[in-house]
């Protein structure tokens, strides 16, 4: 079973508390989302392979290590996932970005894909799926399945908040996927919201409520 990383760095927890606070406005919420995404991206890419190159410093010849051209794609799940993309692109500006949209079928309550626009070479890329709120885990698991169907082999999942229940669903369906979450909250309410959580992440990022 791949690991779950709870990223309880003080900077992340501080910014997350700001996001949880109902008094926090759209601007600050967006900024905190971007900053946490950047901090989490730093950790989620810790295993990027390096290669050695030769350079000249002002003083001498040196061997230096640089990232070895690994092909990466970020795939935010619409719409809240978009809030994390800018922070991640600041660290890895050459990453390609795909988008996946899922809605919940009212009869089956299962997530159904309604939009997919992915890099043409997605199967050759390491993909980080971005789903800020892993509540039931249904959307994240479905998004990962959708990528695997398109041939993607290496997938990580990044979220802000999750529930153990949601993480269990993802891990059961996708034991190979490493998960990065800033916190695991204790409850899921009857409307599928994470409690205490931070509310509807999409509404708070885009100011739609
Ligand atoms: N999606 C959200 O935006 N918030 C939740 O609490 C659960 C799912």
Features:
magnesium; uracil phosphoribosyltransferase activity; binds uracil; nine-stranded mixed beta sheet; alpha/beta; Rossmann fold; 209 residues; 33% helix; GTP binding; single chain
Secondary structure blueprint with pairings:
Elements: E1 4-6, H1 10-20, H2 26-44, E2 50-56, E3 61-67, E4 72-78, H3 82-91, E5 96-97, E6 99-104, E7 111-117, E8 126-130, E9 133-134, H4 138-149, E10 154-163, H5 164-173, E11 178-185, E12 187-188, E13 194-195, H6 201-206
Parallel strand pairs: 1-11, 4-5, 4-6, 4-8, 8-10, 9-10, 10-11
Antiparallel strand pairs: 2-3, 6-7, 12-13
Bound molecules: uracil.
Residues 80, 133, 135, 192-194, 197, 200-202 line the site of uracil (URA).
Description of the molecule:
The chain has 209 residues and is of the alpha/beta class. The chain has one domain (2-204): Rossmann fold, CATH 3.40.50.2020. Helices cover 33% and strands 33% of the residues. It contains 6 helices and 13 strands. The strands form 3 sheets. Strands 1, 4, 5, 6, 7, 8, 9, 10 and 11 form a 9-stranded mixed sheet that branches. Helix 3 links the parallel strand 4 and strand 5. The longest helix has 19 residues, at 26-44. The chain binds uracil. Uracil is lined by residues 80, 133, 135, 192-194, 197, 200-202. It comes from Butyricicoccus pullicaecorum 1.2. Uracil binds at residues 194, 199-201. Catalyzes the conversion of uracil and 5-phospho-alpha-D-ribose 1-diphosphate (PRPP) to UMP and diphosphate. One of its GO terms (biological process) is UMP salvage. Pathway: Pyrimidine metabolism; UMP biosynthesis via salvage pathway; UMP from uracil: step 1/1.
């Amino acid at each position: 079973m791949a690991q779950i990383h709870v990223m309880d760095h003080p900077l992340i927890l501080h910014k997350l508390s700001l996001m949880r606070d109902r008094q926090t406005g759209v601007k600050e919420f967006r900024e905190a989302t971007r900053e946490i995404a950047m901090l989490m991206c730093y950790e989620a890419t810790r295993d990027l392979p390096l290669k050695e190159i030769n350079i000249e410093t002002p003083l001498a010849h040196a061997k230096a290590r640089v990232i070895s051209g690994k092909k990466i794609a970020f795939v935010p799940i619409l719409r809240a996932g978009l809030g994390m993309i800018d922070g991640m692109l600041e660290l890895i500006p050459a990453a390609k970005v795909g988008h996946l949209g899922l809605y919940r079928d009212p009869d089956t309550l299962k997530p159904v894909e309604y939009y997919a626009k992915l890099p043409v070479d997605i199967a050759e890329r390491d993909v980080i799926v971005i789903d800020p709120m892993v509540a039931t885990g249904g959307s994240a698991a479905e998004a990962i399945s959708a990528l695997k169907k398109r041939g993607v082999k290496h997938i990580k999942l990044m979220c802000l908040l999750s529930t153990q229940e949601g993480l269990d669903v993802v891990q059961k369906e996708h034991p190979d996927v490493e998960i990065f979450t800033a916190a695991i909250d204790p409850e899921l309410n009857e409307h599928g919201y994470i409690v205490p959580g931070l509310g509807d992440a999409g509404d708070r990022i885009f100011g739609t409520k």
